[in-house]
Amino acid sequence: METRRIAEILKQAQPDETVTIGGWVRTKRELKGFAFMEVNDGSSMANLQVVLDPQVPSYDSLLQQINTGASVVVTGTLVPSPGKGQRIELKATSVTLYGEADPETYPLQKKRHSFEFLRTIAHLRGRTNTLGAVMRVRNACANAIHRFFQERGFLWVHTPIITANDCEGAGELFTVTNLDLKKLPRNEQQGIDFSQDFFGKRAYLTVSGQLEAEIMALAFQNVYTFGPTFRAENSNTSRHLAEFWMVEPEMAFCDLDGDQDLAEAFLKYIFKSVLDSCLEDMEFFNQRIDNTVLETAENIINNEFGRITYTEAIELLEKADRKFEYPVEWGIDLQSEHERYLAEELFKKPLIVTNYPKDIKAFYMRLNDDNKTVAAMDVLAPKIGEIIGGSQREERLNVLEERIKQMGMLPEDLWWYLDLRRFGTVPHAGFGLGFERVVQFMTGMGNIRDVIPFPRTPLSADF
Amino acid sequence: METRRIAEILKQAQPDETVTIGGWVRTKRELKGFAFMEVNDGSSMANLQVVLDPQVPSYDSLLQQINTGASVVVTGTLVPSPGKGQRIELKATSVTLYGEADPETYPLQKKRHSFEFLRTIAHLRGRTNTLGAVMRVRNACANAIHRFFQERGFLWVHTPIITANDCEGAGELFTVTNLDLKKLPRNEQQGIDFSQDFFGKRAYLTVSGQLEAEIMALAFQNVYTFGPTFRAENSNTSRHLAEFWMVEPEMAFCDLDGDQDLAEAFLKYIFKSVLDSCLEDMEFFNQRIDNTVLETAENIINNEFGRITYTEAIELLEKADRKFEYPVEWGIDLQSEHERYLAEELFKKPLIVTNYPKDIKAFYMRLNDDNKTVAAMDVLAPKIGEIIGGSQREERLNVLEERIKQMGMLPEDLWWYLDLRRFGTVPHAGFGLGFERVVQFMTGMGNIRDVIPFPRTPLSADF
Question: Which residue, A148, A103, A360, is CA-closest to A268?
Answer without folding.
Answer: A148
